């Protein structure tokens, strides 16, 4: 049996070139026509379609996979994931209109992040911290407070009141507490109580309790290469490589809170990440028209007529929204004249709001 979300992803990839390249209306119509299925009479009754609505109250957990969601269980990542609002966990009732911005890098560091930040919550920022300043300012304009950090022990966990955690261009094993409790005299020192991967534990428990996750640019694929749970959180995909930083045309694929107000096609400049494996079980939001690119990667063949760059999904009880855009510092500067800057800002702000639950998510 072909799962609903997998069937939609397959259809998106196989759409006629004209449907994808001629904008959101043609793409949405083609996908809707091919994937329309009757809604279940009652959520959680065992119907093949388990989309339903996000529950608003906690329910007892009595089975590994809730009734009606078996078709959305991913055995590789051991989670329910995809376009499954009924899988959401409303387990924390006192979340605030506040997000945590996490920008720690354990490898390459994009210029838009500025110098590494000192430990602690909300350390001083400079003008060089372009992404951080932009997210703080943009979210403040819509009434959302932002805390920021690069200290791995500050990641939210069980019961956190943050509505979302935003990973901004993180890299490599960003969730590992490097250099803690190293004892050269022993292979393992059990006397320190050190929990070097506590960040992973915290993030996973936060998502499981209904937290929102947002990944911007290098946070998708360029982060936590060797942790399958994080790969699944990002859509079951990894960054493989990219071509030159160059102009291209973005295609808006779907109606969504995060694509509201975006034109069907718009100019932008980026590195245009290639994916391996290809993202699955997600709602695709934006793609790049590869025919608009002057050059491509010298290694990866690209994705041809369907090259997604932004998508969303429900994952293990939480919400996940990601966008690979945002390499250039100017993309984060209002009024910079960077091509498509105002649309990038709108997409990111509304994507964060949807992951928080302040706007409808991924429907």
TrEMBL record:
InterPro entries: Class_I_gatase-like, TAT_signal, ThuA-like. Residues 189-352 form the ThuA-like domain. Residues 39-68 are annotated as: Disordered. SUPFAM superfamilies: Class I glutamine amidotransferase-like. It holds the Pfam family ThuA. Gene3D superfamilies: 3.40.50.880. This is ThuA-like domain-containing protein. It comes from Catenuloplanes nepalensis.
């Amino acid at each position: 049996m072909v799962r609903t979300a997998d069937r939609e992803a397959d259809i998106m990839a196989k759409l006629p070139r004209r449907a994808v390249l001629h904008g959101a209306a043609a793409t949405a119509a083609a996908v809707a026509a091919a994937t329309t299925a009757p809604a279940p009479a009652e959520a959680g009754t065992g119907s093949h379609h388990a989309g339903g609505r996000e529950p608003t109250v906690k329910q007892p957990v009595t089975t590994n996979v809730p009734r009606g969601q078996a078709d959305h269980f991913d055995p590789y990542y051991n989670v329910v994931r995809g376009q499954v609002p009924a899988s959401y966990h409303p387990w924390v009732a006192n979340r605030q209109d506040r997000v945590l911005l996490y920008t720690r890098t354990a490898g390459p560091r994009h210029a838009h992040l500025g110098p590494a930040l000192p430990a602690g919550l909300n350390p001083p920022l400079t003008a060089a911290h372009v992404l951080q300043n932009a997210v703080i300012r943009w979210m403040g304009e819509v009434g959302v407070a932002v805390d920021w950090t690069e200290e791995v022990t500050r990641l939210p966990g069980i019961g956190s009141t943050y509505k979302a955690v935003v990973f901004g261009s993180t890299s490599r094993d960003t969730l590992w507490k490097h250099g803690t409790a190293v004892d050269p005299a022993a292979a393992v020192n059990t006397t320190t109580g050190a929990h070097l991967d506590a960040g992973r534990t915290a993030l996973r428990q936060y998502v499981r309790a209904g937290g929102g996750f947002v990944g911007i640019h290098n946070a998708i694929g360029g982060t936590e290469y060797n942790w399958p749970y994080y790969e699944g959180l990002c859509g079951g995909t990894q960054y493989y490589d990219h071509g030159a930083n160059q102009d291209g045309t973005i295609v808006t694929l779907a109606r969504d809170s995060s694509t509201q107000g975006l034109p069907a096609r718009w100019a932008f400049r980026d590195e245009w990440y290639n994916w391996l494996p290809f993202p699955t079980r997600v709602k695709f939001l934006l793609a790049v028209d590869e025919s608009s690119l002057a050059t491509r990667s010298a290694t990866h063949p690209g994705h041809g007529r369907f090259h997604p760059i932004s998508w969303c999904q429900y994952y293990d009880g939480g919400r996940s929204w990601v966008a690979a855009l945002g390499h250039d510092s100017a993309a984060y500067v209002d009024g910079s004249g960077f091509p498509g800057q105002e649309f990038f800002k709108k997409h990111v702000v509304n994507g964060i709001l949807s992951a928080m639950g302040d706007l409808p998510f991924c429907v």
